[in-house]
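Ticket #4471: structure export looks truncated?
Reporter: QA, pipeline team
Priority: medium

Steps to reproduce: submit the single chain below to the structure queue and open the exported record.
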Amino acid sequence: MRWQLVSREALTYRDLDGERVDYNASTGSTHLFEPLAAELLDALLGADGKLSLDDLLERLPLTGSPSQHWRDAIETVLHDFERLGIAELHSNDCR
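Actual output as written to the record:
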């Protein structure tokens, strides 16, 4: 499975003391994201295409090898992004 932003152009953001505030013009919603969510959003914003969970793990500034805890935390944030209309999940055959 691979993830990508729904609309890169619709997102406007500001960093505030280690947290991030994003405005999504597509939905009219504003969101406050903690550091992991902000890092994931940066990775998706910097991607040329869809990214797998492993692709995202490689792009995040994590120390050591990624544990199941990190994988679970990242998947939770990605599904939150999906619920908020920020990112969407695609099957592996879609590139």
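Status: closed, not a bug. The export was complete when the record was re-opened. Leaving a note from the reviewer for reference: The longest strand covers residues 11-16.
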